[in-house]
Amino acid sequence: MVKRIGILTSGGDSPGMNAAIRAVTRVGLNSGLEVFGIYNGYKGMVEGYIEPLTRNSVSQIIGKGGTILGSARLPEFKDIEVRKKAISQLKKRGIEAVVVVGGDGSYRGALSLTEMGINCIGLPGTIDNDITCTDYTIGFMTALGTVTDAIDKLRDTSNSHHRCSIVEVMGNRCGDLALYAGIACGADIIVTSDTGFNEEDILDRLRELDLIRKKKHAIIVISEKITDVEKLAKKVSLNTGFSGRATVLGHIQRGGGPCPFDRMLASQMGEKAVDLLMQGIGGQCVSIRDNKIVAYPIEKALSMPADSRKPITNLFERLL
Ligand code: ADP
Asked: Which of 136, 167, 163, 154 is nearest to 288 (CA)?
């Protein structure tokens, strides 16, 4: 039976990572395990920046943004020699299994470690909701709240000045944040990698909103990595009756205390991760699917098509 486990946060941070650290630590300790915090992701694992976690060291963090363990990127972790170094650091401390909170890159690292004899369980910590095997990732709902709040504010001022606000949101090629925020804010146009990007269609639609629908403002929510929103705003000003303004929300979306949903999700997923490790299971990741906490083999999870989740794209069209 496993006696010592580690936990780390890796890749881009997200609100709720601390709630996951707390859950793994408390459930682990209450199950008779010793729990170690591995700082700065895989980098800290290689460098041996590893310390025991106690009940007290994770108190008062459930509502805190960021991650108390820090996060980092270490591309060299793909190299087997680097991973061997990391494993010897774990072995030195008797750590036999690890919970990895992060995105798909972090999951790949977790799978490689499992294949080398250290059981790892992945938890989806990212605001991008770009892990297809789970309906929601830890941090997505908080980021959605942040984006919704920002767009509501932009709408007020956009309405006063006959503007078209073009709001770029994160998502790392996953359109969920844009789609959900667009629906939640009553946007006029949503652009994601799924909808495709056609500048002429957007300008036509804006002219229609201005001249036929007589709208005082327009809101476009667009995923990052699709187009230069500043340039698009200029084109809107030149070619439609609206004055175009671009807002890139940026890293604000990653910050802030987690909303109750993310705290609950992280707590439930943390509990599941400890239970799996105690059963001697590794190479899996925890998901929420149809409101149930479940686990999938990481390999299968990484190849699941995005449309395996409930589509809500049609809803946006029906609300226009
Ligand atoms: P995210 O986990 O948010 O997707 P990254 O893609 O940057 O973020 O991955 C986080 C870290 O996971 C990387 O810096 C690297 O240390 C590790 N990692 C990513 N891909 C692999 C891989 N194929 N094999 C081993 N480790 C990996």
From this structure: 136
